[in-house]
Amino acid sequence: MENLKNEDLKNLVKEKYSEIAKCDAEANMASCCGGTCSSTEVYNIMTDDYSKTEGYNKDADLGLGCGLPTEFAKIKEGDTVIDLGSGAGNDCFVARSLTGEKGKVIGVDFSEAMIARAQQNVDKRGFNNVQFRLGDIENIPVTSCVADVVVSNCVLNLVPDKQKVFHEIKRVLKNGGHFSISDVVLEGELPESVKKTAEFYAGCISGAIQKNNYLSLIEKAGFKNITVQKEKQIIVPDDILKTYLNENEIATFKNSKAGIFSITVYAEKPEDCCEGSGCCN
User: Fold this and answer.
1) Domain count, the chain
2) What is the span of the domain harbouring residue 163?
């Protein structure tokens, strides 16, 4: 039953993000992670500004992120980088500007519509070292121990089995490789009415887990040197909250210590992670 529930949630997210692939960044950034609950308060609820970042291309930016993981990912020339939940390719193109022509960038997304849009973007640029693969990040379609760096931007919170994703990240990283991931986490408890709303799940918030639990999953997966590189609180506008909560619930939520945060987390795969040790599994 749990697996069925997880598949239902994944299908919901896939359907939603396939629709988002047809939209522009302005529409997506005025909503909760590209949700249909578009806010009349016109500002970016989740995303950070990429416009001054080297490698940025407006066509590939759908406004779905909650951080700038590539800024903190310590990507070097010649690196192989994997972007999980690559969307239209924004972080892949930024990563490519850092790896240079000697490097390689692989974007993974489970939405056929997103892969198609990303492929159009890479074809326009003629990059021969950026590729996009259709796949589930709980089972990354990449062989083991190939990546120097893994990045992801506001994606893991939407995945039911986050522990499996972190184990997969470790599997695809080379020994001593690392990741930098931006994601949405919680501190304190959100109202039940928010948690149970499928729209909020696909909109980044109800799929998020407690910050301490999130960091614990990374530790349990066997990573070291776990560091929160950046943290910011996310304020959801009243006109979005009113779609899901009544006035009393909004007041209770605002007066509570519960909060929604974007964090960017760094961690390393151990250097001595060798074949057959179980470290890569």
Assistant:
1) 1
2) 2-266
